[in-house]
Amino acid sequence: MATAPKHTSDATSYHCPCPPSSGKVLLFYRYFANPPRLPSLHPSQPLELAQWHKETCTALNLTGKIRIASEGVNVTVAGGNEGVEAYVERCCAHWSFAGLPLGDGDERDKFFKPTEGCAHVFEGLSVKITEEATPFGAASYVPSDWIITPTPAAGIAEEEEDQSLITYLSPPAFHALLTSIPPDEKDKILLDTRNHYESSLGQFTTPTLTPHLPPIRKFSSLPAYLEPASSSWAGKDVITYCTGGIRCEKAARYIADTLPVRRVYTLHGGIQSYLTWFSEQLGLGLVKPEDSVWKGRNYVFDARGSTGIEGDDEGRVAMIGKCGLCGKEESAEVVGKCAVEGCHLVMLACKPCAEGKAATGKDWECCEACIRMTAVAKKKNGKRKGLCVCEQARVSRLNDNNP
To answer: For residue 270, which of 290, 289, 251, 291 has the smallest C-alpha distance?
Structure first.
């Protein structure tokens, strides 16, 4: 089962007795106002929808996290292959999925984004009704318009464009865009809309385009981070991405509505869709691992910690993360958390350090200052005050914000 460090709620490791390839993890979302639109929910319907998901997942022995709001749903669930497949079938027949293109296996895979895993990657099932499908820090913000029926842009394969400033890119179109940017390009911004610990583990990057990596700890801090960009990003194209699409879709809309940019591109289906597509291309021998514009590992919010490109057996996709235990650059590929009570920052480590900690049973600790601060608080029978060195460094970067 998934296990979490003391005093925390999210698991960072798990023990799985399941045979290999016997289960899957699904990652999907839907904004109800994004066509094909659903009618506005009746006040009682979020509760009914939450109950349906809870009963369905429980009956099929699925675990995970489901967040339901009046604007949409945000779902990641896991279980055995048969249970996951039955859940997908029931979802496709449910009114809340009406109108979505889910007629064949390929369409369903693009929407539900299955990856290898099992029920043990979560500690249980959590179904909640929330104000937003994903907290954005601008609760009153509603996109001025959502995507309309997409039509391919002239001359660009597999690109979905609406009549506002938003262009939705499939993984191959996203790859083609990033690899076609010339060295002297100054009018394109690549924005990672995730949290800093996620982008520290992996990110999209090319020799000609370095991503903007907001030093934020939660998505709800992104609107404030974007405020200074009003002048520096004027008239430029912004390219956004996130894990599965739900964050960058809302962020792309927010940027188009609030900043004087020329156009906003967003990766449809997020990083996970790109990894799936590139892995398929790699398996067919159509690309080499070093052709990937994704570097490192993809942080996920379950006990697996991260996902990556399948088929890269020799590790030719470069790691970019710095090990938080030994300090080695471009080595981190294991996710953990500081075990010091009152901290619990997400940490990254190289395999030798992570395996060494596991072998000796020692906890991960982010810095000496963190340990001292907690010890002082315990002596005074009070709560910890102030920030440890690690958090001070992040906040300093955030205060110096200059997108």
So the answer is: 251
